[in-house]
């Protein structure tokens, strides 16, 4: 079976612009429904695809967090080049910490950080994400062999050397959270790993924004934009952006 690779997407629908950022080992499908929800309500949206993501595992493991961050900046510049001066950002998981990094380093209208990590995570946990990604890719492409494709064999084949760098990026961003003054809305799922719930508290206490808030979704796990409460998540993001004073 041939897998259709996800792509970046842009929907121009209004004067207010939002950059949408997906997670590690995810792709733009993570935020596509949110993008459509916002565009239906007159927001222009753009979602970049991080380098190496949405493709085969061998391509993913040859990339690194700096290249993924470059994809974020390219996405931000895409909206700038289209003429948008006020750009909000919303990201899930790795996209959440990238959203905060963007808010600390670039002019940003507002930030929605969903399931964002703010404490360096064990590289074994991150490596397991790569293994899961590989297994899922093989099953979707029809190349999975139950006799040879066990986790230990796959782990050796897709070892990703840049995961320690990713830990450093998370730590560096957390150290800069007090540079953020733009409005921040932090979303988390109660069914997610406690690590992400603790990260939400750290983000809230660290940012210097006058407008900041935390919302917990009781029946949601990690990828809030794909979970059973996703419509509530979309509405929450929309209401937060609607509460801002935009230049019209």
Automatic annotation (TrEMBL):
UniProt entry keywords in alphabetical sequence: Hydrolase
One of the record's GO molecular function terms: carboxylic ester hydrolase activity
Gene3D superfamilies to which the protein is assigned, alphabetical: alpha/beta hydrolase
Signal peptide interval: none
Transmembrane segments: none
Keyword Ribonucleoprotein: no
Keyword Hydrolase on entry: yes
Domain Serine aminopeptidase S33: start-end pairs: 15-224
InterPro entries membership: AB_hydrolase_fold (IPR029058), AB_hydrolase_sf (IPR050266), Esterase_lipase (IPR012354), Hydrolase_4 (IPR022742)
GO cellular component: membrane
Species of provenance: Metasolibacillus meyeri
Matches recorded under Pfam families: Hydrolase_4 (PF12146)
Active site: 93, 192, 222
Organism lineage: Bacteria, Bacillati, Bacillota, Bacilli, Bacillales
Name of this chain's protein: Alpha/beta fold hydrolase
């Amino acid at each position: 079976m041939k897998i259709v690779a996800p792509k970046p997407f842009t929907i121009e629908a209004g004067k207010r612009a939002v950059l949408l950022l997906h997670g590690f080992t995810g792709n733009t499908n993570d935020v596509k429904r949110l993008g459509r929800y916002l565009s239906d309500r007159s927001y222009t949206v753009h979602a970049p695809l991080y380098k190496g993501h949405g493709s085969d595992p061998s391509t993913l493991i040859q990339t690194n967090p700096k290249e993924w961050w470059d994809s974020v900046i390219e996405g931000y510049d895409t909206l700038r080049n289209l003429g948008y001066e006020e750009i909000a950002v919303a990201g899930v998981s790795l996209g959440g910490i990238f959203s905060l990094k963007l808010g600390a380093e670039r002019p940003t209208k507002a930030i929605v950080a969903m399931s964002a990590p703010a404490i360096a995570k064990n590289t074994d946990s991150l490596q397991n994400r790569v293994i899961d990604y590989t297994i899922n890719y093989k099953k979707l492409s029809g190349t999975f062999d139950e006799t040879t494709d066990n986790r230990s064999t796959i782990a050796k084949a897709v070892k990703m050397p840049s995961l320690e760098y990713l830990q450093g990026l998370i730590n560096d961003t957390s150290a800069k959270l007090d540079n953020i003054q733009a409005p921040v809305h932090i979303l988390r799922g109660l069914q997610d790993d406690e690590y992400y719930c603790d990260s939400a508290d750290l983000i809230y206490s660290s940012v210097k924004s006058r407008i900041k808030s935390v919302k917990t979704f009781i029946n949601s796990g990690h990828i809030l934009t794909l979970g059973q409460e996703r419509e509530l998540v979309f509405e929450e993001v929309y209401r937060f952006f609607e509460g801002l004073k935009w230049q019209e």
